[in-house]
Specification:
By secondary structure, the chain is mainly α. It has eight helices and two strands. The protein has one domain. 74% of the residues lie in helices and 2% in strands. The protein is globular, with a radius of gyration of 22 Å. The N and C termini lie far apart (107 Å).
Length: 175
């Protein structure tokens, strides 16, 4: 009788959960299931639902939140969750803008981005976790700065529009 051979298996491979297939399927349907002929651009239900004012972007955000909650169940870091949440927020906020948001939905693909982030963190070895956390933190800081500039810019534009509107009303009443 021969002695059974022990094949060494990676400790990381033993402890890593497998990504639920419905997450990749959901991301594909939301962000890239359709292809524009001859051009090759891909888009999904997110871009189509975005054509419905208000309701569409909210409905597509529910799918994004499902992927985010799955990341929480897989135990990714808070910085990673925040990064994924900011992808969803950016997609929802910019996606709500008429026409510009619809084009943005075709390009940004937040669901597919979030699934890639989730897979990367699930497969990373312990030695890589620190580097990924630093990368996530820098991304979050830069995204927060970008969103802050966007908010400031929208406030400035709103103030300019109100000033212009008040001037137009004043001119109308005088003349």
């Amino acid at each position: 009788m021969s002695k059974p051979q022990n094949t060494p298996t990676s400790v990381a491979a033993e402890r890593l959960p497998e990504l639920a297939p419905e997450l990749e399927l959901l991301a594909a349907w939301m962000d890239g299931v359709f292809r524009v002929p001859f051009v090759g651009w891909r888009f999904g239900l997110d871009a189509i639902l975005g054509l419905l004012p208000g309701v569409g972007d909210t409905a597509s955000s529910v799918a994004s939140l499902y992927i985010l909650s799955a990341a929480h169940r897989y135990g990714v870091t808070r910085a990673t969750l925040l990064r994924m949440a900011l992808n969803v927020v950016l997609d929802t906020v910019v996606g709500a803008l008429p026409l510009v948001g619809d084009v943005f939905d075709v390009y940004w693909k937040s669901n597919q981005r979030n699934v890639v982030i989730l897979k990367r963190h699930m497969l990373a070895a312990q030695s890589e976790q620190g580097k990924l956390q630093r990368t996530d933190r820098w991304f979050v800081v830069l995204l927060i700065c970008l969103l802050a500039m966007l908010m400031i810019g929208s406030i400035v534009v709103a103030a300019m529009l109100v000033t212009w509107l008040l001037a137009a009303i004043s001119n109308f009443l005088r003349g």
